Every structure is written in C-alpha cells, then in structure tokens.
C-alpha cells in the first residue's frame, strides 16, 4: 500500500455559506480531497438540491472550510 492510499484521520470544520455555526466532522479517508468531499456531502445531506444550487449562485461555493487537520491516529472530539 502506498502512502497515498493509506487511510488517515481527518477533522474538518466549516459550514454552509449563510449558516451561523460551524460544524466539526471527522473522517477516515485516503486524502484531503476525499475528506472534503465527505464533509460537503455530510453538510448537504439533509438540505434540498435547490438550496445548494442557490447557495452556489449566491456565494460562489457550497461550503466554507475553516480548518483541516490530519492524523495517523484516531481523532476524537472532546
């Protein structure tokens, strides 16, 4: 298994543009890009597709990411 294929732990904080509060989500993924894809899907899971399209049109993106932290050992929210 190459270093690139190794799953690592990723903690991502951010929010949907226009929301007041950030979310923290933790993923076990092979790359930063994969963790960010999981983060976006997770934030939008309970929202309507029309709202996502409107957010993209208004803000130019569908997610604001504040922090991405990576670790080879498990990350736990305290």
Give a brief rundown of this model:
With 78 residues, the chain is α+β, with helices and mostly antiparallel strands. The protein has helices at 32-44, 49-59; strands at residues 8-15, 23-29, 64-71.
Beta-strand content bin:
25-35%
Q: How many helices in DSSP terms?
A: 2
The spatial strand order of the largest sheet comes to 2-1-3
- Using the alpha-carbon principal axes, give the shape: elongated
Class per helix and strand makeup: alpha+beta
Average predicted local confidence, pLDDT = 93
Descriptive report:
A hairpin with a 7-residue loop joins strand 1 and strand 2 (23-29). By secondary structure, the chain is α+β, with helices and mostly antiparallel strands. It is elongated. The protein has one domain. The chain has a three-stranded antiparallel beta sheet, with helices on one face. It has two helices and three strands; from the N terminus they run ββααβ. 31% of the residues lie in helices and 29% in strands. The mean pLDDT is 93.
């Amino acid at each position: 298994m190459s270093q690139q294929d190794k799953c690592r732990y990723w903690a991502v904080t951010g929010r949907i543009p226009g929301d007041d509060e950030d979310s923290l989500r933790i993923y076990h993924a092979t790359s930063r890009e994969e963790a960010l894809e999981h983060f976006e899907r997770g934030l939008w899971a309970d929202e309507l597709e029309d709202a996502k399209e409107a957010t993209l049109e208004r803000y130019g993106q569908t997610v604001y990411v504040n922090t991405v932290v990576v670790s080879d050992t498990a990350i736990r929210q305290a």
